[in-house]
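> example.struct
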């Protein structure tokens, strides 16, 4: 019988032999909204991972702010490197727990596709000015369901979309793989933001309260190693993703320390007000002058009768930092002229 199976089917069978009974098996996926002929090589979640990796929104993440706006130096994180670090940490945990690595990676790679330029400053600006508000995890879903592929979306599986939608703190993913990404998003940004803040001389390692570092570790590597081991140890052979109370409490308090010392630090965030005003001005301008939008966005308003504020919000949320600045200069700042 097995010689009649294609490679994908053999890989699906192998999952049932190797993976935990709590894993999301590829051949038991709830599927896609629109049927696609299965690939003869790749299981369904691997195919989703590949779709995300090759989409335009993923490539734009390399020029979107993570925490520090326009940092001087090549080693500060961007939204893309944050995404890759989340995927690496999450996949390490998923592999150790014998869960579905490809589902885990697909969720991780897609979780921030809807993020704005200028990080959370951009998110605040759009949430304030858009009549229906703005949340990046919901925009990520909008990207994969609708905006990518010329309005057709990526047609991802329900499990991947569920993990993307529920990666925020208050979310409740339906799979253990989604729960891993939800936790690893925080693990990644807390620790790499500490690393970037030290590089930017906002804080020093020795200034981090010892009641947290004595538990979690005194360096980036130590903290990641301890957090990963704690999750794996407490979640093994369990239908949940769990941290020990001691480690979990230390990480929550370290996150609070980062909000006080870095995320709200005036020196670290001294350009965020300008970034917010820039996006708000772009929003107002495009609302008043929709003909300056790209043709594909105009068509959505004309033929699909989408409200202008939603189309404008989609356009601005998809911008990179440098593209937003370029459009602002083009539309708002007078250029030199002469008589010829």
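> example.seq
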């Amino acid at each position: 019988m097995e010689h009649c199976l294609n490679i994908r089917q053999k890989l699906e069978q192998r999952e049932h032999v190797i993976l935990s009974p709590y894993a999301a098996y590829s051949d038991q996926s709830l599927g896609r909204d629109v049927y696609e002929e299965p690939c003869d090589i790749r299981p369904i979640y691997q195919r989703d991972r590949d779709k995300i990796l090759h989409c335009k929104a993923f490539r734009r993440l390399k020029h979107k702010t993570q925490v520090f706006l326009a940092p001087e130096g090549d080693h500060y994180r961007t939204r893309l490197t944050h995404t890759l670090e989340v995927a690496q940490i999450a996949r390490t945990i998923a592999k150790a727990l014998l869960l579905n690595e490809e589902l885990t990676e697909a969720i991780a790679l897609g979780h921030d596709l809807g993020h704005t330029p200028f990080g959370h400053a951009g998110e605040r600006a759009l949430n304030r000015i858009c009549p229906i508000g703005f949340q990046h995890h919901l925009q990520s879903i909008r990207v994969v369901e609708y905006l990518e592929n010329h309005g057709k979306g990526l047609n991802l599986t329900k499990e991947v979309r569920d993990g993307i939608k529920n990666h925020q703190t208050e979310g409740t993913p339906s799979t253990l793989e989604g729960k891993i990404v939800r936790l690893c998003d925080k693990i990644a940004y807390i620790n790499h933001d500490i690393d970037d803040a030290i590089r930017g001389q906002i804080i020093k390692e020795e200034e981090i309260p010892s009641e947290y570092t004595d538990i979690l570790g005194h360096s980036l590597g130590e903290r990641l190693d301890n957090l990963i081991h704690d999750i794996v140890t407490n979640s093994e052979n369990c239908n949940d993703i769990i941290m020990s109370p001691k480690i979990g409490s230390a990480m929550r308090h370290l996150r609070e320390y980062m909000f006080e010392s870095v995320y709200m630090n005036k020196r670290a965030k001294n350009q965020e007000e300008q970034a917010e005003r820039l996006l708000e001005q772009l929003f107002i301008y495009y609302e008043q002058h929709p003909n300056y939008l790209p043709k594909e966005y105009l068509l959505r308003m004309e033929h699909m009768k989408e409200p202008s504020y939603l189309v404008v919000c989609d356009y601005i949320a998809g911008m990179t930092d440098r593209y937003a600045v370029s459009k602002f200069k083009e539309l708002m700042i007078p250029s030199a002229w002469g008589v010829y």
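> remarks
The mean pLDDT is 94.
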